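ok so for the tutorial part 2 we go from a plain amino acid sequence to predicted C-alpha cells. step 1 is just haveing the sequence, like this:
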Amino acid sequence: MINYLSLIAFLLLVTLAAGRGAMLRRRGINAFVFGVTDKSDFLLMPVVAFFFYSILASVLGLPLPDVLRKTFFANAVTGWIGIIICYGSLIWLAFALKSFGKSFRIGIDEATQDKLVTSGMFSISRNPVYVAFISFLIGMILIYPNLAACIAFVLFAAAIHRQILREEKFLRGHYGEEYEDYCNRVRRYL
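step 2 — the prediction. this is what the C-alpha cells look like for a chain of 190 residues:
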C-alpha cells in the first residue's frame, strides 16, 4: 500500500509542476527558461535524473545496486509518516503554484517584467516551491530509507540551494529595495 501511495505522490508531484508549465504555455507564457541565462543550469540535469530514478527504482523495484537499495531500517510507522509528509508537500506545492500565478518559471527569466510575488505562500516562505520539493524528498527518505534516497536528497538540496542563491542575486538586481524589504520580512525557507 505504501509503495502504491508513494508512486501516486511522485506522479502528482511531476504532474503539478509539468501541468503548471503547460497551462502557462497555453496562455502564451514560456515557463521553461532553464539554462537560458546560464548554461551551468544543465549540470543540474544529472542530479534531477538521479533523484527521479532513485525514487522510481525504490517504488517500482527498478535496477539499482544493492548498496544503494539496502534500507537502513524497516518501519511501517516511518513509512506512513513519509506518506503524510509527501502528500502534505503536494498540498503545499499546489498552493505555492497558485500563489505564483503567471510568474511561475523553471529557471531565471530575465526577459519578463512581472510583479514580485509576495502574497499567498510567498508570505510564509520566499521559496515555497523549493520547500515543497525538499519536504517531499524527506518524506521519500522515510518511506525508502536507503542510500539512494539520501544521496538524492543531499544532491537535490544542494542544487536547490544553489538555484535559490542565483535567483536571489537576480531578484535583488531586478527589484532592488522592494526585494530587500521582502527578504527582511520573509525567510528564505521557513
